[in-house]
Specification:
single chain; mainly alpha; 3-stranded antiparallel β-sheet; two-stranded antiparallel ribbon; globular; DUF2786
Length: about 425
């Protein structure tokens, strides 16, 4: 009779193949176990052991806990995602040292309880999920197959166990609890909750203005301190539905905040590269604007002419693409205004020579980071299949000027559908 590790290996090989009957036979073998009195426990322990080993191999390949959780939920289901979270907690307990604080923060957000530290992790998980033995084993093998199949991705931060893992400054750690960012969060929360598009636009514009000023202050402080940092990165979910439109929205927000964005559509996320304060800004704005864009899209659906004959999905996608491009235009305008104001203030204090070179150097550093991590990026051209949806999305983003003082009409985007497509791996 094969031992537990061999049974797991056979089941995994069968799942990766195309013979469904063979996969079911190997699952039956797992059900039977090794034939010993503790055969079931041995199988559970072997499954957990291999899953933990697979996870530990992902960290040097660029994956982080939130990335693994996101793709497990995307490709499998909630049951599998919760199993993988439990396995990540078990793997963390075995991790010796050099584990950065941000890593533990991610795990704490994903895993509510510590759980068991041995093979009973699987039994406890199956019991909590209400799964019978067959379904639990099938889900566990599927999760293992996924974890072992994930490709290398860009290493954004030193992973646990590597030099600099603990001392490296986390991306997005630039005063994330500062009073200014609290004001930005409050403005964006109001923008999401209001039912008046003009108010939402003005609140978002004010948030971008504050963010831009904060970014300039951070840039000057960092230049004065001569820390020698390099740009970091974060990954933002751009999953279905309308993944391309979400990726475009990330890119527009990133560009307005001096960041670069690369869409990995097959993995369901967009990587944003930039300096810590700017990454915080992009994450805050993208999350809020996605809520606002969805609300505007639903309102736009209700305003459609009866009998237009257009499919809702095609209309929605065109709407969101247009919304993203026009909002990006507004955000860049706000950033440029804040930069001009800071430049004039610097000139009055005989410091004008400091600001623009610092911003240019930081922008160049971000582009160099992009070239290093993603040497093979290509551009993906937008295709707009519903002119009515495009027009409605543009109008939704145009209803109020992003000039907080009001009065100036936003300029049109020439050749809208072909402008600034998202980059992808």
């Amino acid at each position: 009779m094969p031992d537990a590790d061999e049974l797991v290996a056979n089941a995994l090989a069968a799942v990766r193949g195309t013979d469904v009957r063979q996969a079911e036979r190997q699952l039956d073998q797992l059900m039977v176990g090794t034939g010993a009195a503790d055969g079931t426990t041995a199988v559970d322990a072997a499954l957990l052991r291999r899953l933990v080993r697979g996870l530990s191999r992902l960290w040097p390949r660029g994956w982080q806990p939130v990335d693994v959780d996101r793709i497990t939920s995307r490709r499998l289901d909630a049951h599998a995602a919760r199993l993988v979270r439990a396995a990540m907690a078990a793997q963390r307990r075995d991790q010796a040292d050099q584990v950065p604080a941000w890593w533990d923060d991610q795990l704490r957000e994903l895993v509510a309880t510590e759980g068991a530290a041995d093979g009973s992790v699987l039994a406890g998980w199956a019991s909590r999920e209400g799964l019978d033995r067959a379904d639990a084993l099938r889900t566990a093998v599927d999760a293992l197959a996924l974890v072992e199949s994930l490709p290398p991705i860009a290493v954004l931060r030193p992973p646990p166990g590597t030099t600099g893992a603990v001392t490296a400054r986390p991306a997005g750690a630039a005063r994330s609890g500062s009073p200014m960012l609290d004001r930005v969060r409050a403005l964006l929360a109001k923008a999401e909750s209001t039912t008046f598009p003009a108010e939402a636009e003005a609140l978002t514009a004010k948030a971008q203005e504050l963010i831009a000023r904060h970014s300039i202050d951070e840039a000057l402080l960092a230049a004065g301190a001569e820390r020698g940092d390099q740009p970091g990165g974060v990954r933002l979910s751009t999953d279905t539905p309308y993944a391309g439109a979400k990726a475009l929205l990330v890119q527009e927000v990133a560009a307005a905040n001096r960041c670069e964005a690369v869409w990995s559509d097959d993995l369901g996320f967009t990587t944003v590269l930039g300096w810590p304060a700017d990454l915080v800004a992009v994450e805050l704005l993208y999350t809020s604007l996605l809520v606002q864009a969805t609300a505007a899209m639903l309102r736009g659906r209700a305003e459609r002419r009866p009998g237009s004959g257009r499919r809702t999905k095609v209309w929605d996608e065109s709407f969101l693409n247009a919304f993203a491009l026009r909002i990006g235009e507004r955000l860049r305008t706000a950033t440029e205004a804040a930069t001009d104001a800071a430049d004039r203030a610097a000139a009055e204090t005989a410091g004008a020579e400091r600001l623009l070179p610092v911003l240019a150097a930081r922008g160049e550093a971000v582009r160099e980071r992009l070239d290093t991590l993603f040497p093979g990026v290509t551009r993906h051209r937008l295709s707009v299949r519903d002119a009515e949806g495009w027009s409605s999305g543009t109008s939704a983003a145009d209803r109020a000027s992003l000039d907080v003082g009001g009065g100036r009409k936003p300029r049109q985007v020439p050749g809208g559908p072909d402008r600034r497509p998202p980059e992808r791996r």
